[in-house]
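Lab notebook, bench 4. Still working through the backlog of constructs that have no structural model yet. Next entry is a single chain of 50 residues. Request: give me the structure tokens for it.
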Amino acid sequence: MSGGVDSSTAAFLLKKQGYEVIGITLELWQNNEEKEIERRLLFGFSSTRC
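Model written out:
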């Protein structure tokens, strides 16, 4: 789901007509804080530490 009105309205109209509707959202990026947490979990250290 895009977060806009169009996809939600389309999903509502399809559901109203009897279709099974499943909404998904893809996150195709990470912010720096998420990358840092991932590095700590995977490698056990901070990338900013020397």
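Notes after review: The CA atoms of residues 35 and 41 lie 10 Å apart. The helical segments are 5-16, 32-43. Flag for follow-up if needed.
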